[in-house]
């Protein structure tokens, strides 16, 4: 049995992650070259200011011949076909060997690709490239008329893969937002995504999912990427280096998936048709899916192994309070206390490179109004926040957003024993993300005499209790 899903499956070029690099920025290029991205998209469109288009184009033209790209697929995103810039982009950047592919924005119909193909054929003859060998990746959703013609666009002979985008389309539609409160695409954008996938599969080319714009939310990226792969997408566009390994892992089969697919196809060799396999009836669709997994494994090679996900780190325990539990006015006494020692002060002060005699020099401290060394106030602040964590933010915070006010009403000396309490000052649920909100805490530290030695007001991004808990 030798099942191949489509022509690109057996090709060397695999496009799990396609990473954007601003045209002309050497710093970003060097970072991208060091990444595990399967393809780099050198961008001459959105990431380049109008006044810098010509200089960026010139720099990218040099990159095509002077850069060691390794095994990466090299792409250039040209400017839209309805501008005078695209032709100069193609003429300047197409060289004997690179780029392999052009990313074409705002494609509205196959006629756009016919026009581009004519220009490419002329240049390919001049450069000694194989005529027709320069492939294209059209973005088929950036103008309203394009999505319903995606299936026609995807069948153009130069198309190697198809992708979509929500940002330009939302501007064309006048849409106020692209996702709902749970992070899912609104209906019209989900429709475009589905039409892109169907068009690609119908044309037997690769389907590439669009960018995930929340750069800090790698968990959301992982979920969206895995869902895309489960649906049938072959890869995803990325805009930050931290996204690349997450995307590669999502679009690479695991060792277990490869082993099971291999076992199924081996068993199928001796069967004339449908048969029972591990308690399940299997037939042609199952064989195709198994072959698809092996094709992905063959084309990703060592990179897939490098991005294999480690075992999931266990969540919890959650000793802190969730957003909805932190009601304004709530006062939380903290269980942990601490007697401050001379060693605490010396280690903290020297580790933070603070040379103040007030903390380190007994003789100098004798001449002060205190008559002895003071404990470093930054240690006092750090200790206060640390004592507060267990009952407030342990496992329930996303980030510490900063301090509004920090005061030290009384000094702390060696031998003082400190306790702490926290008051919730404000609780503001997020208007854009219902799973989180910002809480203002006021932490207070007291010595053994009941005197306030530190008061700190800070803001923290807090999680609501997940529905799974």
TrEMBL record:
<keyword id="KW-0479">Metal-binding</keyword>
<feature type="domain" description="HpcH/HpaI aldolase/citrate lyase">
    <location>
        <begin position="16"/>
        <end position="241"/>
    </location>
</feature>
<keyword id="KW-0460">Magnesium</keyword>
<dbReference type="Pfam" id="PF01575">
    <property type="entry name" value="MaoC_dehydratas"/>
</dbReference>
<dbReference type="GO" id="GO:0006107">
    <property type="term" value="P:oxaloacetate metabolic process"/>
</dbReference>
<dbReference type="InterPro" id="IPR015813">
    <property type="entry name" value="Pyrv/PenolPyrv_kinase-like_dom"/>
</dbReference>
<feature type="domain" description="MaoC-like">
    <location>
        <begin position="336"/>
        <end position="433"/>
    </location>
</feature>
<protein>
    <submittedName>
        <fullName>(3S)-malyl-CoA thioesterase</fullName>
    </submittedName>
</protein>
<dbReference type="InterPro" id="IPR005000">
    <property type="entry name" value="Aldolase/citrate-lyase_domain"/>
</dbReference>
<dbReference type="InterPro" id="IPR029069">
    <property type="entry name" value="HotDog_dom_sf"/>
</dbReference>
<dbReference type="GO" id="GO:0000287">
    <property type="term" value="F:magnesium ion binding"/>
</dbReference>
<dbReference type="InterPro" id="IPR040442">
    <property type="entry name" value="Pyrv_kinase-like_dom_sf"/>
</dbReference>
<dbReference type="InterPro" id="IPR002539">
    <property type="entry name" value="MaoC-like_dom"/>
</dbReference>
<dbReference type="Pfam" id="PF03328">
    <property type="entry name" value="HpcH_HpaI"/>
</dbReference>
<dbReference type="GO" id="GO:0003824">
    <property type="term" value="F:catalytic activity"/>
</dbReference>
